[in-house]
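Q: What would this chain look like folded?
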Amino acid sequence: MHRALVVFAAFALGATAVAAQNTTVIKDRKEHFKAMGKAVKPVSAMYKGEEDFDLAKVQAAIGVIKEKAPILPTLFPDDAKTGDDTEALPVIWDKKADFEARFKKLGEAALAAEAAIKDEDTFPDAWKTLMGNCSGCHKEFRKPKS
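A: My prediction, written as structure tokens:
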């Protein structure tokens, strides 16, 4: 009987630990990523030639990236690995320093793109470089879309 109680208590504690995942921070980071995606989407359409070039929209998108890049690495604490349908892969916590460095690099790339993009001619190369930072991180640290 005592052994069964110990097993049950251990199971209950484990279940509590899983339930105690920080879903608030997961929701917060999802909102930050969603804001970046919303800002980037029309600019990516410009890059693909699906929309006319608009420097104001490009600079606004870069501004959102500059704002979010330093915030996002702080939104992956150890208690926010699972829950709330997170798309974050466990490798984030295995390679935390690399993961965080990528956000620093993204912020630096946003600053460089902001300085480089002055018109439609300077847009494609700088935008491609900036977006390369996003796709590289998605490939390694985010669950693939189904």
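Residues 22-141 form a domain with the Four Helix Bundle (Hemerythrin (Met), subunit A) fold (CATH 1.20.120.10).
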